[in-house]
Amino acid sequence: MKRRPILVSLLSLLLLLVAACDDDGGGGPSPMTAEEQAAFDYTNYARTDPQGFAEEFLYQAHQNGSDNGAYADLMARQPVPALELSPGLFAAARAHSRDMNENCQNLQHDSCDGTSWSDRIRSYYDGGTIAENAAWGYPTGLDVVLGWIIDHNVPSLGHRKNLLSGSYTHMGIGQAGPFWTQDFGAGGTN
């Protein structure tokens, strides 16, 4: 458990360094909000220390039967590497959350104008494998990560699988109003 504060501190420092190196003249997305940063950090905590995350955040839900098998799943998982923040995936996730919030007021993967989720992401992140989680109504970064990991009413457990998959190396996270988007990639260049 003592590794978690060190991991979160190192990840936060890394993200501050990445944000400080942005030289796009101010035209890129604004830095992550505190809740987006929290979602990023909690995602990486669940990936790099699944047992610690499960014990800290899922044990009570497991005890009362409301964890949808997440506690046992994380307790049995091997750690996978932390995700790196991708500026392209960050911009794609932020744009999708804003689109849902401002244009269609509906939770969906495709853009409100009908553009497929994969075409939208690929317009920001070229190459590689991609995936997306979307959510609505979670007030904090921790709440949305728990929602994706517990994955109630999603028989495929696709959100949990995306979030914990060692196949992905990059992530972007965006929140606008009640809407959240988490985009994943591997092999892309931006």
Q: Can you describe what's shown?
A:
The protein has 190 residues and is an alpha+beta fold. The chain contains 8 helices and 4 strands; from the N terminus they run ααααβααβααββ. It has helices at residues 3-20, 34-48, 50-63, 70-76, 87-104, 117-122, 141-150, 158-164, and strands at residues 84-85, 129-136, 170-176, 179-186. It has a 4-stranded mixed sheet with strand order 1-3-4-2. A hairpin with a 2-residue loop joins β3 (170-176) and β4 (179-186). α1 (3-20) packs across α2 (34-48) and α2 (34-48) crosses α3. The longest helix has 18 residues, at 3-20. The chain is globular. It starts with a helix and ends with a strand. The model is unreliable at 1-27 (pLDDT under 50).
Key attributes of the depicted protein:
four-stranded mixed β-sheet; disordered N terminus; 190 residues; alpha+beta; 13% strand; 8 helices; single chain; 4 strands
DSSP helix fraction? 40-55%
Distance from first to last alpha carbon: 33 Å
Please write the string of helix (H) and strand (E) elements: HHHHEHHEHHEE
Question: What shape does the CA trace take?
Answer: globular
- Give the mean pLDDT: 88
Q: Percent of residues in beta strands?
A: 5-15%
Uncertain regions: pLDDT < 50 for 5+ in a row?
1-27
**Main sheet characteristics:** 4 strands, mixed
Record the strand order, biggest sheet: 1-3-4-2
| Category from helices, strands and their pairing | alpha+beta
Tell me the number of strands. Answer: 4
Number of helices: 8
Alpha carbon gyration radius: 16 Å
